[in-house]
Amino acid sequence: MEDNKDQDFFSHKFPTTSQVVEELKELWSMALPITAMNMLVFVRAVVSVLFLGWLGSLELAGGALSIGFTNITGYSVLVGLAAGLEPVCSQAYGCKNWDLLSLSLQRMVLILLMAIMPISLLWINLEKIMLFMGQNIDITRMASIYCFYSLPDLLTNTLLQPLRVFLRSQKVTKPMMYCSLVAVTFHVPLNYLLVVVMDLGVPGVAMASVITNLNMVVLMAGYVCLWRKNEMVLKWGCLGGGGGGMVVMGVVCGGLGQLMKLAVPSCFMICLEWWWYEIVTVMAGYLPNPTLAVAATGILIQTTSMMYTVPMALAGCVSARVGNELGAGKPYKAKLAAMVALGCAFGLGFINVTWTAIFGHRWAGLFTKDEAVKALVSSVMPIMGLCELGNYPQTTGCGILRGTARPVIGAHINLGSFYIVGTPVAMGLAFLLKVGFSGLWFGLLSAQLACVVSILYVVMARTDWEAEALKAEKLTRVEMGSCNEHRIIESEKDEENKWLLVNGNTNKDDIC
């Protein structure tokens, strides 16, 4: 008899307490290691900023400008594109389509390799772009140095981001955490060696980040290829044997269009929200006291980045859970996974509202001794906590939409919420009605409110889970189309060779 864990349940029945508890265990066994990994990545970024600050204020300002630029133009795009892999890999794992799992990873690496070409041109020309926008020449020159030495990081991320999705879709999360832990452990000694001992300055900080990411890639790739080689076989081109290199490339390239249809809207869905925080920083610079406002914005965005590690992990894991169950043909287990994740998101959001309201002033004191900045930060912290009450379920809902292969809907919602609702409200309150700094964050609150209401409506009221399971079956079948065509061609060639061999033998007998 099949284990209850592997059974779906009927639509007219509510899940039992044991099923909910089982789903909670399943979800958090994945989400906790991913949260820890995200925190480690956050710590790595903080260490880099600390070493830039140790070098001097000019180096810190240049590094901060470069980090903002590379986030907007590079890392956000690569993370967003790689997110398009989530529905395909998770659904392929659910229906045990191992060929598609490997093939999709190869396709995404190829997509990211194409994406980094225009991105690298932007990074190389950072100085010209920033000077054209009127930035300080000394800060811009320092930023261009940091950006130039970060260029190899584009190449490491073409492997790192898809590998993270590939492993997460198979519920492999603890090894990713351990790989990140080992890599980040060496990040401080690397910075010390390159910056202090070798006196490389800003290039040393950039190179340390690149080497840390490279270490992550090597460790994760080693885990996939060596440690779990019997469980996760990467079949290049998904060919079982005799295809040549051109055939393999044909198979990999054949389904790029289908994957791009998921990757591009996934990219927009993530980037539209990511970019909005950078826009807030720019808008803060136009307020009556820009130095104070930008300093407070920096602290608040660092705080939101830290808090975002949890919903980002939850979103990635619920995307995998929903995709796994839909791929396995269990729509109501997928629905349960979605509802449990949303419940967790709301609970965590309330925790953030509480601590930001109570400890706002003390928290600001960890970043600065300036009383004016502390007062400004603590006055906005409760608003930011309310934003997180919306951000947690909104981010989780975006993960559910990716798991059901509907990133286009998420992209439309984020576009409308952040740019049609949030931006006008922020600008209107901050500049027209003279509310000031808090007006920007009320704009974010309005955007998050519009976003979470829209996403919850789509997920809870407009999702036909049985239809999504059928779509998952169709998606994995269509994605494998090009691979199957090549297999058929290879099979036909084999049959033709066999016929010729038999025919040749018959003729020989006739001659004899």
How is this fold's topology laid out?
Elements: H1 17-55, H2 57-83, H3 85-94, H4 98-124, H5 126-132, H6 137-149, H7 152-168, H8 174-185, H9 187-197, H10 202-227, H11 245-254, H12 256-284, H13 290-327, H14 331-365, H15 371-403, H16 407-432, H17 437-461, H18 465-479, H19 481-511
Helix pairs in contact: 1-2, 1-8, 1-9, 1-10, 1-13, 1-14, 2-4, 2-6, 2-7, 2-12, 3-4, 3-7, 3-13, 3-18, 4-7, 5-6, 6-10, 7-10, 8-10, 9-10, 12-13, 12-16, 13-14, 13-15, 13-18, 14-15, 14-18, 15-17, 16-17
Question: What report would you give on this structure?
Answer:
This protein is 84% helix and 0% strand. By secondary structure, the chain is an all-alpha fold. It has one domain (9-473). Helix 1 runs antiparallel to helix 13 (290-327) and helix 2 (57-83) packs antiparallel against helix 4 (98-124). The protein starts with 16 loop residues before the first helix and ends with a helix.
Strand content: under 5%
Provide a count of the helices: 19
Shape: globular
Q: Please give the number of β-strands.
A: 0
Low confidence ranges: 236-244, 486-512
The residue fraction in helices comes out at over 70%
Please summarize the sheet with the most strands.
none
Distance between the termini: 61 Å
Main location: membrane
Keywords: Membrane, Transmembrane, Transmembrane helix
Subcellular location: Membrane
Protein name: Protein DETOXIFICATION
